[in-house]
Amino acid sequence: MNIAILGSGNIGISLANGLVKSAYCNPSDITLTRRNLQGLAAKAEEGFRVSNDNRQTVANADIVILAVLPQQLNTLLDDIQDAVNADKQLLISVISGVSCQDVRARLNKPVQVVRAMPNTAISIGQSMTCIATDNASDEHMNVVSSMFETVGSVVRINEELMTSATALCACGIAFFLRAIRAASQGGVEIGFHAEDALKMAVQTAKGAADLLLMHNSHPEHEIDKVTSPKGCTIAGLNEMEHNGFSSSLIKGIKLSSLKAGGLYSEN
What we know:
The protein is of the alpha/beta class.
């Protein structure tokens, strides 16, 4: 299987690394493209194929992964249009705000397209990736699911929820990081050195997430275990809620979803 990753930035390279690390494929099975090949010199030394010719790369590929910025997509699709073989190839798009139909319409070909929305934790094999399609076969969906399971967890959703997935999972990384940063700042204010406070906040956040994953439980169930009557935990939680902790996070996710849906249309 020849895999082409067009636009080898952080997401594209992290996926390539994950596929190789998990023994899904060999470096020589993957071609990474970028306009400036100097940025791919290290990957070439690792055995990956590299190129700045998207059209030729697509012509030799079984699976084509579109990983450029939304504003670069139309130019890329125009460039590779003649090389796309709708009968033999699968296209995977990791581009925010771009529907499967958008890709087919620009190519003017009935190619099977799957959308995938990973997040930056893909670089450590801990991505939450949502996948969706409007025309790809179950066989191809299974292929895409297997690929992204090499770099984290995968959930299949309806395509109309992909912009929501962008907000909750991709943008969500930043939201949770900001919460950890705020917790560490609170730690400094109550007496800890900054380095210690950050380490404590990070590990506490990781422990909270692992509790939910390993126990398959609801957050409120775990919260109930640490909130005693007239206790310090419930006092802190209520103070945060009085100042809009949950509502501000919900509003931020909703706004990010709206913005994500318009990224391609703004092009």
